Amino acid sequence: MARTLLAIYPQSTRRYDEMLKAGGEVRPHWQQFFDHLDAASPEEMRERIEFVDRRIQENGVTYNVYADPNGADRPWALDPLPLIIPPDEWAAVSAAVAQRARLFDAMLADLYGEQRLLAEGLLPPALIYGQHGYLWPCRGVKPPGGVWLHHFAVDLARSPDGRWWVIADRTQAPSGAGYALENRLVISRVFPEMFRDLHVQHLADFFRDQLDGLAALAPVEGDEAPHIVLLTPGPYNETYFEHAYLARYLGFPLVEGQDLTVRGDTVYLKTLRGLKRVHVILRRQDDDYCDPLELRGDSALGIPGLLNVARAGRVVIANALGSGLLGSGAIMGFLPAICERLLGEPLAMPSVATWWCGEKPALDYVREHFDDLVIKPAYPTQRLDPVFGAELEGAEREELLARIAARPHAYVAQEMINLAQAPTWSRAHERRLIARPVGLRAYAVVNADGGYSVMPGGLARVATGASTRIISMQRGGASKDTWVLTDGPVSEFTLLKPSIGVRDLVRGGANLTSRVVENLFWLGRYAERFDDSARMLRVALSRLVEAGGQKTPAVASAIELAERLDIVPVPEEDELDLKGDGEHALLEAIYDPAQPGSLAGSIRSLMWSATHVRERLSLDHWHSLNRLQREQAAAQKKHPSMTEAIAFLDRVLGIASSLNGFAMDNMTRDDGWRFLIVGRRLERLAFLARAISHFLRMDSARGPGCLEWLLELADSIITYRSRYSRLPELLPVVDLLVFDDSNPHGVMFQAGVLGNYLERMARDLGAERGEHLQAATAALRAFPLERFENLPFVECRRGSACDDLASRLDDLVAAAGELSDWLGMRYFTHVGDISRQTMAL
Amino acid sequence: MQPVRYHVLHETRYDYGSPVSLSQQQLHLSPRVLPWQLVEEQRIDIAPAPTWRRDGADAFGNPVSWIAFHAPHETLRIRSLMNVAVLPHRPADLAASPAWEAVRERLAYDASAPDADDLDATRFLFESPHVRIKHELADYAADCFPPGRPVLLGAQALMARIFREFKFDPEATTVSTPVLEVLEKKRGVCQDFAHLMIACLRSLGLAARYVSGYLLTRPPPGKPRLIGADASHAWVAVYAPGTADGWVDFDPTNNLLPDTEHITVAIGRDFSDISPLRGTILGGGGAEPEVAVTVVPVDEEELPEGLLADPLEEA
Q1: ipTM reported for the complex, 2 dp
Q2: Residues B288-307: pLDDT tens digits?
Q3: pTM higher than 0.90
Q4: Which of residues 218-237 of B touch A (CB under 8 A)?
Q5: Which of A150, A211, B22, B304 might form a disulfide with A318, Cβ 3.0–4.6 angstroms?
Q6: B125 part of contact set with chain A, CB < 8 Å
Q7: Which of A131, A360, A514, A838 to mutate to test the interface with B (most CBs of B within 10 A)?
């Protein structure tokens, strides 16, 4: 038997220990778990840790860290040992959290309504009118059911005597409940017997209460089913993983602001199959960003007009707009009296002692006891990290004191609590428990009875070091599952379906939002655009290298075409002689992302649209995109030679073809996929038609070697050689690149495929279109090819067959552009276009 | 006291250049009723006709309209017409107001139930999107508020100082120029001067609100009044408990106390609460509006020819 884990576990006299009593004895509710742990071999524990890490990785649990210069998603850090809380203790915590939620809901209703609290002097106006979080346009709004606060979180800490205190309130859009759920799914599998034997309360009932609570408030008409969506600010938010995770778990569509549109006093979700009314918006986006018409006008994330829907009582916004107001620590000191006034009962759980500097006696106290206090911003919208008075010296200290003196109402000071410590498994040792400061975030949601249900558990967070004062996931802390024990039976309800029946089967295409479809469409277009530009640049560069830097006719014509296609910038008049060989311009067109039309710019656009549909791309697909970006970033740093540039283009074209392969082989063939392919074909059609049309009209293209590179540009040189085994001539080249509908790189082929998809879309989505494209294609097809017979390219001048064919190709390009616009109007309603603010005096 | 009657036309025109497919607008164009201002007639004509419209009041009691367009359109014209009568209301004796420190004390929180008017005034006591509270601003105003000076005399001195030291210059600032930059540049337009004066007063702990509206202008002698030659205007109201209305208007752009030549449209913490026309559009090209205001004192002058013709019809 190995030495007991207790032998080296650090006991503390300054902190409450979750596992040990003051005398060093294991607390009764910890005993069974501790024994289990103590009996486990190092191998077993290693396997458990590995299991946790693997699950986190496989499930893609991440936390985006703004401060990370690589912008990387960081894997979620999870300690295998749970925070264990006994039944009686939890009963008190749970009642206090529910009371606090009721209190805050009543306060919001008052502050955006009658304002008795201000009239009776129970709250200073500065804490309401003085903060940006008070959203004036929300004054007088009456949310459905009178509920303002639908979900609420409190950060709790335990003082050395074992009492729980509230250290912060989250009323805006509290995060972490989804991570708590994910933690539970992992840890309950790490210690399955313990989880069962200890009677740990399950979390599913809490989420069902949330779902039922929102559904009960939904302002539905007739027998409409409540349509609830989860609104996220998007993939760049630090808790985006959780938004996606909760949306999937609760069965709500995950939407961004652009997915929603207000018409009159109703808000709708834009889907491929039309507008669908939304009754409830579970919002993970800050309230002041929600409506650029009346709130922050610079918000690109908002839904213009949403506030008017709220005014009409036709949508539940959870939490109601304006709720962020009460996240202010400054109100804590006023809560006991307010609780008595609004609820007629004493406040059940104290807040950590808080002094709002806007009151003169409080300010004096803060000055005198500066070393014992934490200084925080009074308003949640201020950007200021908590500062520990004792850690500030000299000029820094003077400066902060001066800032407080200048705007006392903007600061609060809080007593420092020595956080409780909890045992944590050390990853650095074979078998060791270490003690880490711990805090708990608890959650409450409004339920179908109008009361509040508290999650039995919550997100426990542990600090990185033994003496760290702040616990924050942003600063690299870790989390723990929280086990709340019960004396009664454990509810076995689950929202995770044990197995999927025929009724649960989901086939592709259900409920695709317009934004997802539009991003797929543009992903297709950008992927093709990038491919086309790379090909064009490779043609021009290879000619230049072959000619030893001489500007032969082939070089000159290839560069001219690249210029006409806006891939290479047209040089200014006075630059012409300086950089006559075009090398510099070509290299810039490859590597400089700031250059309009550059390859680097296309890669950026491609990555952008891919990021927004990331959940629909396979992992391999995503990895290839990442490789592409890395290649580009690496190449940008040095000054590549022309040969290196050609090698680079070869590599990225290889990646491009694998991207295309993933799209063809790995993606579900639903409406979204069809839009991706339509985007791709449309782009290729337009590119080929434009390129050939310009080529036919360019004088410089009449020189030797030009028809060859045109074949190479259209990836058709091998086909040509195998068919004709002679030098390219105008008629067969035109036939192969334009008219031969078996050539996948030919114009007719694109038009044919596009036609088929449009027909399918017209059938499924019920809208006929594309007649201009059809007409232009028919006109092209009717072109008498005999006109090119016995016509050498050099003799094919203005007003000739070349010109006529070019015009018909131009018509096709115009029809393709019109089709693209129309698809946008019909299916995306300009979702790619962001609302702009206008202002007139 | 005889009221002075006005006819006002405030016309806004957007030529978007390309179609706007979806548009929503918030209008603060209807004048509010005040103890010294009667609204006899008022109407807003809009072309094209909006798909949806709601009229109501905002959190500060101003009339507001929200309109939405769901069909593509390339132009938008909004004509706000009103007949209002303004009564003289300038206080006779500024020295009769309380000392400025007394006002500041009344507005400070002391845990007792506040006086209703004082509580109402605290809405205009703190920072707002265009108004900062800074010691630089308090310092700038300090000379105008020596100890014990009646609050309205202090405000008058501050107004005079701004008028004296600042130059009217429409090129110097934009809608979003911060008030501290205005203080540094010593240039701006009526909005900037109003925001600056408000910021100074609030930095001293006094309540001040932003007033938007119109100002009567006089055409050059012998010349007829031109349609659209005026503009919307902005000034300041200072909280002075004990005066007839509780609030007294100051116009720092013109260094005068508004009386019967200022027509009030709306009152807010600053411009952002009551911008005349604020909206969001999808689509459209350039979106610089053309705005034309005409203020006619109807008891003195005939309405200029063509003023009442309805150009919305021909549009």
Answers
A1: 0.94
A2: 899 999 999 998 888 887 77
A3: no
A4: 231-232
A5: A150
A6: yes
A7: A838
